[in-house]
Amino acid sequence: MQKVTRDILIDRAAELLASGMVNRVLGWRSGEFFYDVVPAVFRSEADMRDGFVFDDFCGCNFSKYLVKESARSDGRILVFLKPCDTYSYNQLLTEHRFDAEKTYVIGVPCDGMLDIGRIKERVGEGVIGIEAEGDELIVKTLYDGDKRMKREDALPDRCRHCKGKKHVAFDELIGEECEENDENASGRFEGVAELEAMTSEQRYFFWQNELSRCIRCNACRDVCPACTCEKCVFDNPKSGVENKAASDSFEEKLFHIIRAFHVAGRCTDCGECSRVCPQHIPLHLLNRKFISDINGLYGEYQAGETVGSRSPMVDYSRADLDPSEAIGKREE
Amino acid sequence: MQIKVRKPLIVAFCCNWCSYAGADLAGSNRLNYPADVKIIRVPCSCRVNPTFVLRAFQRGADGVIICGCHPGDCHYTSGNYYTRRRMTLLFSMLDYLGIERERTRVEWVSAAEGAKFAATMNEFAEQVAALGENRRLEDLRCKK
User: Is pTM beyond 0.90 here?
Assistant: First the structure.
């Protein structure tokens, strides 16, 4: 359960709409199913009362929507950002992708979002409702009645190893701000370390297995708050990599390496790529590999923590190691 | 009957100012290095986009080596420093995906180091030959 309810958010948004401070609101709207929450722009309080939601399925990071949305009108847009979304907001400001004066950020606290995929893995299809009871979830299903599961098991990877509950950018906050960083954040690179411990052949088969499921829907690219190029290399018909479903094993690898490489040093580890992947490919493992390499070799760096920070990939030091030494050093 | 021995194909990206001249020196000094090394001249080692490396593998390369000026000697002051970071991350990622690490390398070769160029290429070609054909990062469509 989230500590802040939808009504608190709607009341505050209604005040700001009425005062003329903002002219529209970027928020979550319930989709076809209660767990299919989609981003939407609301223009009035009545509209919000009708469709706005804030619950355990509001994982969507709105930062990227601001790029196009802020260019659409002269008025300010109100946006609700969870702590991890604010990193992407800062990163986009660093890259001058939108005008902060045209946005009004309300920081909302987050207790971790749920991943419907993980819930369905445990309880099967036909989920019609979820209630929280302490550390447990009671999942109501159409065919098997109520089922209980641990809330922890329903969390996506990004929330299980939350990088912090503190907002790094906001105009105002709703709810209590938690100053402490989550103690779980250190576990962020466990998945990467596990893979690194495998033999080269095992890793090859692991990734072959994962990446061959890719259908090249490009959802990971489209949702990524760091991928905001107006012209993308993967849309260039001359690039030879713009094919969609017809891809073969090389192309899948190329696509995923290049996608992750393009955001290396700018990726805030928001985990949206893994969330939207219809094939459940653990794409965050690629991004986190780059982050863990950068942290290990060029010093700790969290993209989006401050506006204007310089990414390690557009910087250098004379003392950097050569690739052969650096990769060897990591293994020791 | 003749037995065909498969020779590895190696793509070497050489920077115009140091390594390409180094290769030239190796040639004028009559130093031997394998003919399987195909040199592509680039203005600076940092011109090498990670996609170039992947593309070389796609089109049938068994090993890719990037040669540039020694750190601190870049014709454009700092190009090779960026190469160093970029290629570290790219090679580390390839290793992470299970592509043999020995297939990729970055080496600094100055214009005066013809001998080093030949020695590096000999050693690298041997190393790649020992690994055999590039199977993990191949594009079957390109092998028809």
Answer: yes
